[in-house]
Amino acid sequence: ALLDLDDAGLSTVRAHCRSHGVRAESYAANVADEAAMVAVFDAVMNDFGRLDGAVANAGILRDGLLIKGKGREITEKLSLTQWQAVIDVNLTGVFLTGREAAERMAKLGTGGCIVNISSLSRAGNFGQSNYSAAKAGVAALTVVWAKELARFGIRVNAIAPGFILTDLSRKLWSNPVMKDWNNKNTPLRRLGESEDLVGAAVALAGPVGFLGLVVPHAVRLLVGADHRRLLPLCLLVGPTVLLLGNEGAGLDPALAALASHRVTIPHSTAVESLNVAVAAAPLLLERWRQERMPAI
Questions:
Q1: CA-CA distance, 236 to 36, in Å (whole number)?
Q2: Among the listed residues 188, 138, 168, the one whose alpha carbon sits nearest the alpha carbon of residue 4
Q3: Which of 75, 177, 186, 241 sits between 20 and 30 A of 149, alpha carbons compared?
Q4: Catalytic residues
Q5: Which pLDDT score is estimated for 43?
Q6: Is 25 buried (19+), middle (13-18) or exposed (0-12) by CB count in 10 A?
Q7: 177-199 tens-digit pLDDT
Q8: What stretches of 189-239 adopt beta strand conformation (E)?
Q9: How far apart are CA 235 and CA 15, in angstroms?
Q10: What is the β-pairing status of strands 240-246 and 261-265?
Q11: Torsions phi, psi of 259, nearest 5?
Q12: pLDDT for res 290
């Protein structure tokens, strides 16, 4: 089920999905419009009869400094229109997506997963008061919902990407000054691509998200970032610990001591590590079942 305001984009993605043998339907709606979102989720249920997962990814940019000027002369302010537009789509849109998805999953009684797309900007990014506030809100909502919805068997996770090249940001990153800045501050010397997030989203929607992916607070799931900050990633399953660490990244000795499995990754992206975790997750789940469930 594909949701967007861009009819042409929806048609392209729908055709791509169908070309791979996937049933795909598209729905045009504004994620900030409550009535429209209720109607869309009703339509999805009518068309598919179930809802197993939802990814809240809609977002816009309306960047600007809070105030702009020289000395005591202020020439420009971030407008309320700029502020509200981003909050409506990037935060209220996530709220409505999560609420409507959770309601239907709970009524079905089959559980499900919600994956919210936050951002590195959640910690505050220059010139992005509105965007940073919205993405910080998304991160907070994810924690709240994970606690509230667990009793319904609904898992809630978030991905906080770094700088990703999209249609929205293409103009910004075509600026030679910004390109140079990115190359100097990103060891891989490239921007992330939307495809780089697929592994993380699939992982969180699958076994890894079910078992619980624990990422140390200092780690950033940021494609192209310093691998020493990206890793280790720790998959904790009861007494079983899968420790994913980049070679020479300085794994936490306490975690290493707990690890019953250890995999060394010779690469530097979180996505590659998550793909390994997805592959290993079924084995860990079976081990957990054998260790925790009584023999029948």
A1: 39
A2: 168
A3: 241
A4: 131
A5: 95
A6: middle
A7: 888 887 887 777 788 787 777 77
A8: 192-193, 213-214, 233-237
A9: 36
A10: parallel
A11: -65, 130
A12: 53
